[in-house]
Specification:
Elements: H1 2-29, E1 39-40, E2 43-44, E3 52-55, H2 63-77, E4 82-85, E5 90-91, H3 98-107, E6 113-116, E7 119-122, H4 126-135
Parallel strand pairs: 3-4
Antiparallel strand pairs: 1-7, 2-5, 3-6, 6-7
Length: 138
């Protein structure tokens, strides 16, 4: 009986530590959703941290591509570093992580997908993107 109490105590301590460690990681990374509606996603393999990425098919007459082109042009017109892309790679450690699930939701949502400093949104407005850029500016 004494051994069972020790195992339960050790299990409770391990669970508490795991929960504390997870909360510390979340606090360091910031909230899951920003005020402008952008969510944390896995790291982009080749992104510059000071550049907004706008994702949708290039040279396409569809509304998605037209919105992406207009958004990229508007951001550049405001002096914001922007890169218009039609493909992207991510560093995903676990497909079960909240960030990976956010990524799946964004990439399956309406385009363009926009990425600002490790956070993304599906078809955000110009004002939402600008707010997210300013949130990440020193």
């Amino acid at each position: 009986m004494q051994g069972l109490k020790i195992l339960l105590t050790l299990g409770a301590l391990a669970s508490s530590y795991q929960y504390w460690h997870m909360r510390q990681h979340e606090a360091a990374a910031g909230p899951m959703v920003s005020d402008s509606g952008f969510v944390r996603i896995p790291e982009v393999a080749d992104a510059r941290p000071d550049t907004v990425l706008v994702m949708a098919a290039k040279n396409c007459p569809k509304a998605d591509a037209q919105r992406a082109n207009a958004l990229a042009q508007d951001l550049a017109g405001r002096g914001i570093s922007v890169e218009r892309r039609d493909s992207i790679s991510f560093v995903i450690e676990s497909t079960d992580s909240p960030e990976a699930k956010n990524l799946s939701s964004i990439m399956n949502g309406p385009l363009p997908a926009v990425i600002v400093a490790g956070r993304a949104s599906s078809n955000p407005t110009l004002d939402e993107v600008v707010a997210e850029v300013h949130r990440n500016s020193p």
